[in-house]
Structure formats: structure tokens, C-alpha cells
Write a structure and sequence with these properties.
167 residues; alpha+beta; Butyryl-CoA Dehydrogenase, subunit A, domain 3; two-stranded antiparallel sheet; 5-stranded antiparallel beta sheet
């Protein structure tokens, strides 16, 4: 139900996750000269200086999209799905707590996939200039809202338990 503040926090998590999936908010940029290797001759070719931008749904160069970032898209979909399901489980607060913790864990996995997409790949090897952009800190907001929702759900659970003791 939307009448409780933790439902608002969880709804904000869903909105942030969907915005990250549907928009092109970059979180990493690398500029430099890529090197290609020929397997047949063993020679390496240094290409011209280029810029590579990584956002939550794709990796792009000025020439076009290099690859889709399926790992981040999948994890963000899991985060949004868990948060949306948690909103409607308002009668089962213990399960809500577990699912909210699952949102936190999935967001930490998102940071891991972001790391592998950026520093785990050497897009350019010569004259590399790597930048972590402000878009990389948006998942921190997901974790903060999940922690706030977790605290409010546990507060509700404690209130219900104390009222049960009084009866």
C-alpha cells in the first residue's frame, strides 16, 4: 500500500531502476588508442584515438554502439522487480524485510557488474584516460532508499509485536 512511507521508498527504487535502464546515463568514459592483435601474424595494430562511453544499457563509441550491457540491465530489472513485489507484500513484513535485503544485495551486485564493465575491460591500451562519471553514484541512492525502507518495515514489525503482547 502507498499509505506507508516505506512503500514510497520502494517506489522511488523502482523509478530510479527503470530510469537507469531506459535512459543513457553514462557512468564511465575512457579515451585512448585501442590496440588490435592479428592472430594469424601476431602483429598488433594501434588504432586512432577514440572515446568509449559506458552507460547502464550499452557501451558506445563515436562510431556507434559496441555492445549491450546485459548484466547491468538484468540486475536493474531484478532490483525494480523485487522492490515492486515488496510494495504489495505489506501484510507479510518478514518477507518484505528479506526482499528489501535482496534489493540491497542486488544493488551491490550491480556495482560489481559496473566494475567489470569498466575497469575489468581494457578498451584502450595506449594513452588511456579513464573517468568515473557522476552517473556511477546513482545506485548509491537505491541502497539508501532500500536501507530506509528496511528500517521502516522493521519498525512496523516491532510495533505490531508490541501491540500483540498488550492483548
Amino acid at each position: 500500500m502507498i499509505q506507508r512511507i516505506q512503500s514510497i521508498y520502494l517506489l522511488v527504487i523502482v523509478i530510479i531502476s527503470l530510469v537507469l535502464v531506459l535512459s543513457d546515463i553514462p557512468f564511465y568514459q575512457e579515451t585512448g588508442k585501442p590496440v588490435t592483435f592479428s592472430e594469424e601474424t601476431g602483429d598488433q595494430t594501434i588504432l586512432e584515438k577514440t572515446s568509449i562511453t559506458v552507460d547502464y544499457n550499452s557501451t558506445d563509441t563515436p562510431e556507434g554502439q559496441v555492445a549491450a550491457n546485459n548484466a547491468t540491465i538484468s540486475v536493474l530489472a531484478i532490483v525494480a522487480g523485487l522492490a515492486l513485489i515488496t510494495i504489495f507484500l505489506f501484510k507479510n513484513r518478514k518477507l518484505q524485510l528479506k526482499l528489501t535485503f535482496g534489493v540491497i544485495v542486488a544493488t551491490i551486485v550491480l556495482f560489481g557488474s559496473m566494475y567489470l564493465l569498466t575497469f575489468g575491460n581494457n578498451y584502450t591500451e595506449i594513452d588511456s584516460n579513464r573517468e568515473v562519471l557522476l552517473g556511477s553514484f546513482i545506485p548509491v541512492a537505491i541502497i539508501l532508499f532500500a536501507i530506509l525502507a528496511y528500517q521502516r518495515i522493521s519498525k512496523d514489525e516491532k510495533l505490531v509485536r508490541s501491540l500483540d503482547r498488550i492483548r
